[in-house]
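3.2 Worked example (two chains)
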Amino acid sequence: MREREKLKISFPDWPAERERPSAETLRTLAASAGYTLETELSFENGAALAGADVAVLCRPESLETAAPLLDRERQLLVYLAEECRGLRCPEAERRETARREWELCHAAHLILSPRGADADALCRCYGAEPEKLLPLPDPEDGESAAAGELLALLRQRFREKVEHDRPFFSVVVPSYERHDSLERLLSQLTVQSYGDFEVIVVDQSAAIWTGWAAFPKLELVYHHIDTPGAVHARNVGIRLARGHVVAFTDDDCIPEMDWLRSARPYFDREEVAGLEGRVFADVYESTRYRVVTNAAVEGVGFMTANLFARRDVLLSLGGFDENFDHPHFREDTELGWRLLGRGEVPYAPEAAVLHPSALRREGRDSLAERNKFFVHDALLLQKDPERFLHLFLAEGHYRESAYWDFFRKGMDRHGLPLSEAAALAERSGIPDEYIPEWLKESLRKRRETAT
């Protein structure tokens, strides 16, 4: 029996004419979970909760019999006691103990209620001060963002570890102000020929998406966050995932019907850490359209439009590097390179995703906006100079002066010395006409020093 862990149970508004569950029954259930049940049981609202290390609130109208209901709550208590104390999202780590207790209370409530359980549960762990029952978090309260992620994490881990409900794939989709495109993607996922998967949408849009009810065939986890950034959103998705393998795609993509089925056999081999699928476009006229494809950069480019990785490997790597956020770019390439250090990452052309070509108009798809993304190439060069050289030559962006403008800004942002940029220009062998003046001077000094 654990010392100092006391379980108290309260049955508010219990009808006088209804038989009460016996203290012996409840004490037996508590003991099976390793808790000491306080002798005094309360049938008044919240009266028995004060002073408990763990407390449960049960509503009598939901009780067919005491034991079956309490058995589920016992599982929840065991899970919270053994797992939740060590489970934190980065935002929650910075919160004080009182906020942590508040989060755990509502985590227990949300674990039970959305899964069809008839009971509301409010649980507290060590150090709690449960003099009063706290309200559910206000979705309009910006401070509840960290609590919201923790609640979602606890729900997902409870399903995985206690209910043993784990799909093979978790499809992670970050979304930002494109709910129409998101719904098109979800419609396509509904008709996937392989069905053992969940979909996790991490939405950063200003307005909460309300269209989830139109997709009853999908096992859909929708999570709204206030923190912008697709890289951060993907990391949230990794933490929420229950699947053995995480499949990444974007809210403006259209996977082919056999996308997941084609990817599945590759993961029968333990040495496979990840998988790169084919990304193709519907229009290849790059003057007027933003064309996204991984043709010619397979094995080095790596795009989250179509990328798979084992979840345990992703967690051990720490997910995506969020230094590649704002604007989000190259985080997928850099992750792919780190995956190669953990195992094989084969290319699977049969696992295909269409990335529709968008007109280069004003806004996020304009050429001016997309050029800003190259600010992260300086960081990518620092991460792996050899692989970056391969990618640099394969993509050929160096032919555009705007590329070098943002590469230079990225050098300042990420602390890349001029000498490393000069080394890149020298090793690449690109014609002098493509080298900007500021880099030519550094390159000249490098050559003089070498001679």
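3.2.1 Second chain
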Amino acid sequence: MMDQVALIDTVQIATDSLNSVELIVRISADSLIQTSPFPESESDPGFLFYLQSLREIVIIMATLFGIYIGYRGLVTWWDQLRGKADFELARRIMERTYRLRNAVRQARSIWGFIPDEDLGLPAHERMLKDYSRRWQSVNEVGAELDAAVIEAEALWGATFLDDILPLRKAISNLLVNIEQYLFAIGPEARGTISREKIEKNRKVIYYTGDEADTYNQELEDAISRIEQNVRPHLKKKTYKLFPLNRGKA
């Protein structure tokens, strides 16, 4: 709604400016004819025709100039609007990406929170509920990021989906390892899953942040790819009403 109002205001200003320029030119041209420094020209049809022709030429040139001003104003307004849309979308994507990273780290934390009402539950059931709460935050932020990604696909093209794919794979990889681990330590599968497999799951689901934490590096690499392609949209752009094309010296 605000963009539509801004467009209407821009067109109105351009129209008023055009009308003002045309009025000033007409008054100036009429004054030039009436105050001609050559008295004898008043009875000279050729001279009067010359002034009238000059008057019309000046009015046409002023009208064309006014049209150009209006056109450049609309182009500048549109460029600013597009630039603002790109900036806001890029900001939302990065903000939600970082929030998702933090949610993933929280989901991978060695320390969990057990509400008082869960203290009486069996250990495995408490763990199931704990990870369910953790993953709820990941799902919520991930859904917000997905909404921004759809908008980015509309504005920037489908190629951006390739940039977000490594992050989605990393999130899916974490979920698979959490589910495998919780199943492996559960009463139904206890003793049937090898220790090597369980230890492999633990290395993914638990955050350490050191060099041995290969999953954390996978996550950071995925985020870096998004940063490389989104951050250029966060740079401020300068829009000029009359752009000057300067050649290289």
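3.3 Remarks
The radius of gyration is 34 Å.
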